[in-house]
Amino acid sequence: EVVKTLIEAIVLVVIVMFVFLQSWRVTLIPVIAVPVVLLGTFCILRLLGYTINTLTLFAMVLSIGLLVDDAIVVVENTERLMRDEHLSPLDATVRSMKEVTGALIGIATVLSAVFLPMAFFSGSTGVIYRQFSVTIIASMLLSVLVALTISPAMCASLLRGTRLRGARLRGARLRGAREHGASHRGPFGWFNRGLERVARGYQGGVARMLRGPLRWLVPYAAIVGAMGWLVLRLPTGFLPTEDQGYSFAIWTLPAGAVLPRTARVGEAVEDHFLGAEQASVVMVATISGSSSSGVGENTGVAYVDLKDWDQRPGEASTAEAITRRANAMLSAMRDAKVFAPTPPPIDGLGSSLDFDFQLQAAGIDRATLARARDELLAAASKDPRLAGVRRADLPETPQLHIDIDPAKALAHGVAPSDIASTLAAAWGGVYVNDFVDRGRVKRVLVQGDAPFRSKPDDLDAWYVRGASGAMTPFSAFATTQWTFGAESLSRFNGLAAYDIQGTGAPGVSSGEAMDEIANLARTIPGTTSSWSGLAYQEQLASGQTLALYAISILVIFLCLAALYESWSVPFSVLLVIPLGIVGAVLAATLRGLDNDVYFRVALLTTIGLSSKNAILIVEFAEAAYHRGASLVDAAVTGARLRLRPILMTSLAFVAGVIPLALSTGPGAHSRVSIGTGIVGGTVTGTTIAVFFVPVFFVVVRRRVRARPLPG
Fold it and tell me: How open is the CA angle 355-361-367, to the nearest 5 degrees?
């Protein structure tokens, strides 16, 4: 699916470039960058020890739209100089490179700076981030290298020069006969006329905004406020739910339930999946006597193998939908508690998508902690925002407690060690030695026969040999009684603890569910809490989010300040970032997505894309300002000259990401999370930002003192 998305992205990007460039010869120049950069990126991944996996291919899809941007900037600017200045392809290429080299380096610096901090994060999130970081940074650096070397050479070789008709065009506007012209016939003519109208309207709009730039900071502040409000209300999560091609169910019976009774529950679970879900299920394997909750006769697990994704079309046939229906149907069983957790989105990262909440003792004994656990489970069962909250271990079971009277045992000459060894051998079994049977080594275990250890009274018939060799019955110094006790005693971080699992109700994100169960636990005195498993990774990732954004923006600022030797240029660029983020968050909100790891990658990409568009405008505005133009004229000039390449690169990037946003099939939720955020962020980071960047340039530049002397 990801390879298919990669191919679709390449095709769509080529189509967008051809629509703008309207010549296969010209389109070939940025297209050549795609295989060159991709092959180079594969080599770098190999050298760094990375593999071609789902995450690196995700990054490749993102890179498709980015890596052609640099070549598009070179081609578009060269062609503009040939059209407007009537230069030969070679002269236009040389001059074009003088104009755009700084912008290309600045774009590569910004995009690398955005993704570089991701490579240094720890935990499972850091592993995911590093896949994106290394892949995108490698492709961006190679893209700039291609744009500075191969693309200029191809421009000088493939672009056709301008031929002037001197006498007949004297006193009139010069027009070049070139391969790629503004054709006014056919579909290209309609497109070019529309683009020219957009450009004229855009130039006039920017000029009007710059008559009073300060007043436009008010709607900008409103957009920033809307962005903050949307970010705060966006549900948080760690990883989106993915269809892994299988499901499973766990059931627990009351304490003391025997194995045949547990097996009957397993048959009912199997009947449900092979009956109601037979259109989506290949087979079901059930195990009675063991599950992730522990080992005991009153527990079991069923593993459900689903059909291939192509044979399960529609949302109703996904693993998530099958699991949801199983929970609804099997929860009505009165003989057992049955849960069908959602498998983890990444194999090996937790046992399920449910949270693992560790309720720990803080100065209380285990019996009090058990009552606190039951109180928390009762409160969680009434909470409408939580679902499937349960203890992760088996319930307390009946246990036979043997009371040894030390005085009586000593009086009979029986040592405690002799009592313990006799109990272990008779009732538990002990290893003696090995023997060879038909060429195979087998173990010898000694244990009392079942009829002589099936009832508590059978203990009285067992004897212990004392120090004198006399045999003393257990009835002489021991009594028995029935009690209830835990199958296992767990501790977490050195404290007595109980593991509680659960998930959010439909429509409630994992982050909101974690907050809800933590708030309920805070009301129980004498306890503290911790997270483990996938929930711990989610908490760790959420704590790193602000640091990730802050470090990325700081690195962008410092890199631009060093590159342009100016404080004004970085501020003009960074002010555009909220305009992209608001679109990404709005798109995620409208599609009901969570603020998960993949969406954060989309936000970082949006930050880089928004900064890239701002750099293109500010670079040309700075050049015009240093040539002697007024501040407003320089801003209008930079906006006018860079509108076409900004639209071309942004549309090419959106076209490359559209397959991600519309993905279906296995792994679709991750691709949708990335694609939706990037499409929304790129749309607002282009349509709104192109108007505000000139405003930012004028406002910030007016805070700088005198203009540097030309030359």
Answer: 105
Average confidence (pLDDT) over 511-524: 90
Q: How far apart are CA 482 and CA 126, in angstroms?
A: 51
Task: Provide the residue type at 325 as one letter.
Answer: R
195, burial (CB in 10 Å: exposed 0-12, middle 13-18, buried 19+): middle
110 or 531, greater pLDDT: 531
DSSP for residue 353: S
User: pLDDT tens, 7-41?
Assistant: 877 788 788 888 877 778 888 888 888 888 888 98
Q: Closest by alpha carbon to 482, among 448, 461, 453, 455?
A: 455
442: buried, middle or exposed (CB in 10 Å: 19+, 13-18, 0-12)? exposed
Q: Taking a C-beta distance cutoff of 8 angstroms, is the pair 92, 78 a contact?
A: yes
Contacts (Cβ under 8 Å, ≥6 apart) of 292: 250, 301, 351, 392
Residues 76, 190 contacting (CB under 8 angstroms) = no
Confirm if 223 and 579 have CB atoms less than 8 A apart: yes
Residue pLDDT, tens place only, 13-22:
788 888 877 7
Task: Count how many residues are written for the chain.
Answer: 711
Answer yes or no: are the C-beta atoms of 100 and 73 closer than 8 Å.
yes
The token pair that represents 374 in the structure block: 């039951």
H helices, E strands: number in the chain: 20, 15
